Task: structure prediction
Amino acid sequence: HWRALLLLRLLTALHFVSEIICEAGIVYTTGSFYSPYAALFLLTIVSAALVYRLVGTLLVATAVNGAYVAVVWINYGLLTGRPTPGAGVGALTGGDDTLFYSTFLHILIFYLVAFIAGYLAQKLQAKDRLLDSASAELYRARLATGDILRHLNSGLLTMTGRGEIIFFNHAAETILELGGTEVSGRDCRAVFAGRLGPLADGLLTALASGQRTARREINIRDAQGRPLPLGISTSILFDTDGAVRGLIAIFQDLTQAKVMEERMRQADRMAAVGELAACMAHEIRNPLAAISGSVEVLRNDLAVAGDDEKLMSLIITETGRLNKMLSDFLMYARVDRTRFQKIEVQRIISDTIEIIRRHPSFSETMRIEVQADTGLTFISGDADQIKQILLNLAVNACEALGAAGGVIQFGAAAITDPDGERMVALTVRDNGPGIPIDLLDKIFLPFFSTKKKGTGLGLAIVSRLIEAHHGRVEVSSILGHGTEFRLYFQGLGGDDGPARHAVEADFVSAVR
Result:
């Protein structure tokens, strides 16, 4: 690098030397002292100022003056002793001072131009350095600010007092599902139309209120039409006259926060319900058992018929239903401690299929299918509780299909979540009538049921048991096409022990 730099400087110096020699030759051949081309030296001095700045330019001016004086002296024979014809050596040695003062004036002009050009070039260089430094600082500031705004997990937007959007970060696009939409420079009412209308109304309300800072929650819908709660913090910007300049809004998706709040509320409710259930269990179940047993004895001892027989059957049926409801309620309120162990998913599914085939809600018009990994899949959990989860979902599917029948499909697959953790996804799917979208958020609530004789505890128990396994449940449904429940559990590594073929044989047998 230093050799290339040295060579460049040497070539530049040779270039200026060549220029001065050529210009001196032109001046000599065109009249020397009287030549109008002496101004060419000024071009060399000015161009040198762009390269060498002040000191270097003065050195080049010295070289120019030396060349100019040499040309004059050669022309008048002061160097050779033989003057050019008509030059008149006496002009320098005699009393005529014109040549002396003219030469002196040229030298002075050359130095003056060199000083001015070099000084201006040096100042320009200093300004360039300051400008470069300021540009670098501005770039770093913009880079840092831009990175911060782009990588915020919260949505951020700024808008003018007229509602025109100025800035819209990537998180805002993701939360509102507006990827690929040009937002900047557009009116918020045009951008946030339709499902995002409440957001535009909230922003404009904040602008109109003039309140410096505010916090509110609004409900919009995502691209699939599902409710999407947003928490928005707004700050109004004012100018020096107190007029509203614009608004800054930061917002977050509160879906997970709402889920956690609901879980905490349910946990609090269940803590109280559990204590109440323990006290009421014996007080209710014992009389129910006594009533049911007494009616059975009376029906066997007495020759009842007609309406009396129907009434006794109704009493026995209803006490049985109440006893089942109480059992479900106790199971929901007082979930037994989960005993984690290594569970073979295929065996759990096959056992569940065997049970559901013998369940009263299962009919010949229904068909069971399985889509699962061919190898053994293992999860960490309580086998009885996992079986209860699958059984509750399968019974729900049977009741949804009804007399018309249909397909119930079980699935199991090993997956890896975004954090790289090994998981197992279990699915229970049916092709029944489906669940309305406005009810999907309520189906896991206790005592919520769309069936006339439902207790509303089947899916609530599923949710509680999955929570006890530190898993999660997702549900999707399309009216007229069916419902799918997806259960995610902690996965474990498999092995190829002697039991593998036996388990697979049981699994295939159960499916058939």
Observations:
- The two ends are 80 Å apart (CA to CA).
- The chain has four domains: 2-129, 155-253, 261-333, 341-511.
